[in-house]
Design brief:
The complex is a heterodimer of chains A (423) and B (131). Chain A has 423 residues and is mainly α. Helix content of chain A is 72%, strand content 0%. The C terminus of chain B is likely disordered. The chains are: A mainly alpha (423), B alpha+beta (131).
Amino acid sequence: MTAAGIHHTILAVWRIEQPRLITSLARMLRDVPLAEDLTQEALLAALEHWPATGIPEKPGAWLMATAKRRALDHLRRGQMLARKHEMLASDMEQEQQAMPDWDTALDDDIGDELLRLVFTACHPLLSREARAALALRMICGLTTGEIARAFLLPEATIAQRIVRAKRTLSESGLGYETPRGEELSERLSSVLEVVYLIFNEGYTAARGEHWLRPQLCHEAVRMGRVLISIAPREPEAHGLLALMELNASRTAARTDAAGEPILLLEQNRALWDRLQIRRGMQALGRARELGGAGGFYALQAAIIACHAEASTADETDWSRISGLYAELAALARSPVIELNRAVAVGMAEGPAAALVIVDGLAHEPALKTYHLLGSVRGDLLQKLGRFEEARAAFEAAAELAGNRREQDLLKRRAAEAAAATST
Amino acid sequence: MRFMYIVTSSHPPGPPTPALMEAMGKLADREIKAGRMIDSGGLMPVAMGAQVRITDGQLRVVDGPFVETKEVIGGYAIFELRDKEEAVAAAVEFMQLHKDHMPGWEGTCEVRSFAMPAHEGGCQVDALAHA
């Protein structure tokens, strides 16, 4: 195997073990950020030794033993209070003696520790960007370089974000705590928000050349699946997972061979991923069983489910979708939701009814720079035969779009409207 | 990336030992909770299956068991993973359990990547994310 190949394989093995490593270390050290450092050190040790020795038969046990040794060293260097040190060190030495039975280690449920990890990484004290970077690092085991590439940012920026966030957590004594009861539900929204942010960053890349960055979607969906396993009674966790699975199910149909976006109604539904749709529907069903049908994420998932369930675009139940948007709008007042409701109303009742809603949004400050307002308005005007106004709307929207592919699409539509004007 | 794992064994070796069942159960539980394993299933013995074959332009239905079959598929799992290295690492871990808990068992875990519907743009994006 080439050096790069071995490196890649070691990273893959480490990623499988990373959740158990970090959660076990966090429990021992009562410090999540420190546990994260040591998990990284174990990876570095593996990268140093394994190319020569080969990958051990039980790589998890090797990594754990290495990380624990580092933890002991760390404690011995006296970076913790002497008493805590003694207590923990003796605990750990005992544990280490009992260590070789790796299968037993597979036994204990890491759910609680993982929950703590997720809540620590997504602490509301941290900025959303910092939470996203920490979550990808600590929960998904992505390297700083991978996170930087996914967010199209310099590696140094992400590294600094992570270091600062970890320092903030350690200094405020938040490095090891688990919210319970009511606080858990409150804090969960901060976690869900971050996971959804990561998903959306990948699903509709806000910047850059490409329409989707599947890596980020993939990580977010995975985190969503982790969340429902550690917080199985939280309906919104299921709702968010449903939303992400259902959206991700359309990935293959969303771009053409040249990477140009294909809008939902024009997509080849045969390319939608049935397995992922099934999983999304299951998660949505679970959210409803838990009484969460009216939740912010569950409602959005229900809207996407309407699309997933229609075998052709013509069979879409638009009046149900516009009803769901109305519910969503009542829950979270947002001009963007209102704009989406307008699209559904347009499909259910015709473009004239939708244009009334859209024109009502024209002076919303939040939509001043939102290219989709012009895009929707242009589409409605086009359908009403008001081609000149449609062209102007599409052109203005193209000016505002940040993604080159979307920009191109809007320019094409403006040209179509212009062509219709002249005929 | 999505992968299918197909486990085949040359001799019908009887059911997995309880220790293997337990170890596989734990592994599966961990993989489901980690969001990596998204589907799986074990298969009933070939005797209960059937094959529909075309040979020499003739179509025929053959009920199991199939005397000439050398490799028997015991089950499958579908995983969503970052890359092939991760897929192989997971298969190694899975097969190590067989080695530990069912001495004498011989078989193969085949790791196959799903063919993605052709959209080169997506591949480019993937390449970018991994570059």
